[in-house]
């Protein structure tokens, strides 16, 4: 079953037929190709002739020989020869083609082309290409299925809580949704290994694959916990692994660039400055974590925090972790002129837990909205702090 990824389509639609390059960035198999196809379907329904649309997926064997921009340009020229009107170019996983940015720049200079590209590296637009096209492209980050999309895919209309716990383990990679149990785990492991091989090892010429695996497993075990490259260094030294802190930092950046993990910096809310130590990391999809290191239920608060973080990214927030006095605010979320503070926990099961989660928010002196998100059904809002049920938050993207 294929569902319409409406949130993304709605963000792209204002730029369709505009002289601006549409760029979709996200991990492999997170749904970028499907979104391109849905845009193409929409264009055809609106009357665009099929021959005016050129779609190229560079992971398919049909395009393996397109290993330089000259061949690619010849292919496009042959496909579009004698075609009148605007030509729509869809380049899927374009980072595979060397010097692709020069070709895109060339087509952009011709106003009769409408260009869409995808890539599985967050630095796709770094360096020369960004310089060429500064202000001429719009970038959209694509993430695995949200819980709302998960419910829509399986046509679920009730018993949301039990399905949430399943989503917590399954994750949201759409290419795995037709599998269950051990089959799903094997598919997730294979997909994870494909990302590591193609987007990290080969792209960055990594030699020490065992070290790369150790570092990623450390991150998976410690999602939503503050740590630094120095902490990983100390842990690996205990295992008699000899490496530099700089190497660890580089490997972490490789995982970030491949859209597998996200680093979130800490912010001093009183001093209004970014702190340069003890960042947090979150994984792009909990299904990978479940497949590689096991049961998410043993540290469910960490997993829930990861899910909330990803949902806030989908809603367009820039996120830091807040420090107020000696306390931590899980998420400081900014979007245009909007600012909100969020604490995340599994359950407010005791007075001590309630105090722990509400106190950091109470210590913030400004009047911007403050939320505590948990799995509790009862509303425990007080002192101007709004308590939200996690599933209600995930199902309604207008809540925050």
TrEMBL record:
Residues 21-151 form the AAA domain. It comes from the Archaea. Transmembrane segments: none annotated. InterPro entries: AAA_14, DUF4143, P-loop_NTPase, WH-like_DNA-bd_sf, WH_DNA-bd_sf. SUPFAM superfamilies: P-loop containing nucleoside triphosphate hydrolases (SSF52540), Winged helix' DNA-binding domain (SSF46785). It holds the Pfam family DUF4143. One of its GO terms (molecular function) is DNA-binding transcription factor activity. Residues 198-345 form the DUF4143 domain. This is ATPase. It comes from Methanobrevibacter gottschalkii DSM 11977.
């Amino acid at each position: 079953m294929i569902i319409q990824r409406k949130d993304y389509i709605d963000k792209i639609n204002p730029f369709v037929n505009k002289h601006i390059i549409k760029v979709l960035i996200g991990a492999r198999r997170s749904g970028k190709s499907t979104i391109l196809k849905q845009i193409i379907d929409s264009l055809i329904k609106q009357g665009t002739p099929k021959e005016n649309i050129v779609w190229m997926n560079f992971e398919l064997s049909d395009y393996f020989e397109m290993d330089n921009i000259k061949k690619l340009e010849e292919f496009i020229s042959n496909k579009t020869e004698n075609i009148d009107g605007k030509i729509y170019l869809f380049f899927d996983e374009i980072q595979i083609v060397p010097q692709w940015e020069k070709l895109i720049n060339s087509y952009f200079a011709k106003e009769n082309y409408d260009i869409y590209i995808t890539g599985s590296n967050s630095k796709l637009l770094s360096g020369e290409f960004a310089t060429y096209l500064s202000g001429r492209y719009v970038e959209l980050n694509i993430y695995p299925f949200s819980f709302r999309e998960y419910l829509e895919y399986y046509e679920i209309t009730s018993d949301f809580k039990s399905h949430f716990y399943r989503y917590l383990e399954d994750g949201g990679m759409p290419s795995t949704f037709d599998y269950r149990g051990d089959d799903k785990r094997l598919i997730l492991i294979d997909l994870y290994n494909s990302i590591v091989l193609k987007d990290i090892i080969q792209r960055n010429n990594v030699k020490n694959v065992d070290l790369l695996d150790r570092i990623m497993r450390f991150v998976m075990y410690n999602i939503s916990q503050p740590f630094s490259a120095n902490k990983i260094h100390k842990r690996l030294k205990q295992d008699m692994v000899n490496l530099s802190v700089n190497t660890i930092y580089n490997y972490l950046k490789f995982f970030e660039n491949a859209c597998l993990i996200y680093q979130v910096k800490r912010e001093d809310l009183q001093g209004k400055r970014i702190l340069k130590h003890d960042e947090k990391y979150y994984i792009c999809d909990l299904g990978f974590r479940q497949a590689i290191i096991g049961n998410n239920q043993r540290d469910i608060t960490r997993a829930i925090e990861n899910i909330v973080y990803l949902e806030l990214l989908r809603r367009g927030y820039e996120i830091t972790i807040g420090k107020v006095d000696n306390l931590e605010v899980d998420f400081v979320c900014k979007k245009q002129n909007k600012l909100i503070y969020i604490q995340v926990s599994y359950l407010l099961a005791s007075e001590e837990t309630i105090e722990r989660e509400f106190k950091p928010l109470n210590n913030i002196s400004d009047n911007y909205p403050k939320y505590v998100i948990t799995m509790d059904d009862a509303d425990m809002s007080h002192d101007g702090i709004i308590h939200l049920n996690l599933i209600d938050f995930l199902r309604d993207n207008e809540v925050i």
